[in-house]
Amino acid sequence: MKRVSTSIIGLGIVGGILSFAWSADHFPLYGLSFLPFGIRIFFILDAVLSIIAGVLFILAFRLFTVKIIYLLEIVYWWINYLLLTLTRVLPAPLIGKPLPVTTGPALIAFILDILLIIVSTVLYIFIS
What average pLDDT values come out for the chain (128 residues) when binned by 10 residues? Predict the structure, then answer.
């Protein structure tokens, strides 16, 4: 059985914390009553998926032999990043117009998405 390096464990913990922070940034968006209900549900479901991704990051010391999990993490964070950036340029689903560029949760999510893409990619490379 392979020995897990401390860098994989540390990177998994950092990824988990960032993922939980991303989720904490999105949970309050459910309470915005001016958003359509479908988008509010999307924010909750995406926040729950982010919590699951955070748990998988933290369990890197146990799951390091299952590389596909971290490839799925890379895909998940890229999808979130692309949804965030493209809805600022193209019409957002259910709204029909581009979303405003804000300095609030969208900026925090943008920074966290980039960091989580980096962490999940580096973790996948370390595990390979």
Answer: 74 95 92 85 94 93 81 95 90 81 84 96 88
Phi–psi pair at 106, nearest 5 degrees: -65, -40
Task: In whole angstroms, give the CA distance from residue 86 to residue 98.
Answer: 8
Are residues 112 and 50 in contact, defined by beta-carbon separation less than 8 angstroms? no
First to last CA, the chain: 15
Q: How many CA atoms lie within 13 A of 121 on its CB side?
A: 9
| 80 lies in some domain | yes
pLDDT score of 1: 45
Q: Which domain holds residue 36?
A: 6-127
Per-residue confidence (pLDDT) for residue 126, from 0 to 100: 86
Hunting for tokens 């117009």 — which residue is that?
97
pTM equals 0.89
Of the candidates 122, 115, 103, the one whose C-alpha atom is nearest the C-alpha of residue 17 is 115
**Is residue 60 in a domain?**
yes
Cα separation of 86 and 79, whole Å?
10
The reply to whether 82 falls in a domain is: yes
